[in-house]
Amino acid sequence: MQEEILSEDSRDFVTALASGLEVIQAFDHDHPRMTLSEVATRTGMNRAKARRFLLTLHALGYVRKQQRYFELAPRVLQLGYAFYRLIIIGTLSSNI
Fold first, then answer.
1. Which of 5, 8, 34, 52 might form a disulfide with 38, Cβ 3.0–4.6 angstroms?
2. By mean pLDDT, which of 25-39, 43-57, 72-86 is the weakest?
3. pLDDT-derived band at 94, boundaries 50, 70, 90
4. What is the pLDDT, as a whole number, of residue 1?
């Protein structure tokens, strides 16, 4: 059974959520701390849009701000933790 993937032009697609996740994904091993301009460049967003997402992520605790630099906060780990637990539980239960 193949799942149906929602297209970006669907009325059910939430562009703001996709953009916020794109900002989170912009941070990586080579870019652990970035300025607003660097995030805007890496995501292809204009500075105003990137700023709004960074400040929202900061308010929600997913990003830390130190002077003009932004970096991911430990709270982003919660985004993958539920999936990780499913994998571990699935692995453990299949080994029983």
1. 34
2. 72-86
3. low
4. 58
How many CA atoms, within 13 angstroms, populate the side-chain half-sphere of residue 54? 26
Q: What is the pLDDT of residue 88?
A: 80
Q: Is-contact 44 23, C-beta < 8 A?
A: no
Beta bridge partners of 26: none
Beta strands in 1-96 (DSSP E): 33-35, 63-66, 69-72
Burial 3-29 (b: 16+ CB within 10 A, else e): eeeeeeeeeeeeeeeeebebbeebbee
Number of Cα atoms under 13 Å in the Cβ half of residue 1: 1
Domains and CATH numbers, the chain: 15-94 (1.10.10.10)
